[in-house]
Structure prediction request, 224 residues.
Amino acid sequence: MTIRGILFDAAGVFYRRPRPTYEYVASLVEGMGLSLDLSAKGWSRQKALRSRANKGHLSPDEYWGQVLLMAGVVDTLKRRVLVTQINSYSDNVLPIPGGSEALAGLKQRGFLLGIVTDTMYPLARKKRWLDQVGVAEFIDVIACSTVVGAHKPEPEMYLNALQQASLTPAESAFVGHDAEELDGARKAGMATVAVNHDPGTKADYYARSLVDLLNVPIFETAHT
Prediction:
């Protein structure tokens, strides 16, 4: 297998938050004596809203405002205050150990490196998070869902990054933690590597940590 480029997920691979944003929002709502709708119908609606936001069809303020309204926060001013808090919390990213070391090593071996990321926020904000956790300097291309108008596991996301990098799927690998997103990369024709993944996640290769990516056989050296 001749791998020239490596694409990565961002959240859950290079950074995390003190706790998932949705859990943080749940705690804000619970502090008001309310609760998020955890029924199947509620989750389905929230997922549909998130899909629209990730594609850039809803702003973050609109998305979180709808989620809060679903939870029973009917006061418009209170929703605005909470949305401001949520957006601020989203900037609280913590590095997952080994990111800069792994990317520096892969870059030294000659690989082109990219990010394929789902977010409801603008690309500039995502770049700022990557900079905060010390990996931005190594990244050559970024496919951002709000720019592309699609989100993983839709093939457009992976193919957009490959097009930017002038790579074919067969020349590329995707590194991620989410089973559905890894499956999407596989269907797009890419090799897959799982890291920080849930048990049972399927991939072609597995890494115990970000630094362990340097030991993945297909990442020994870039083929030009």
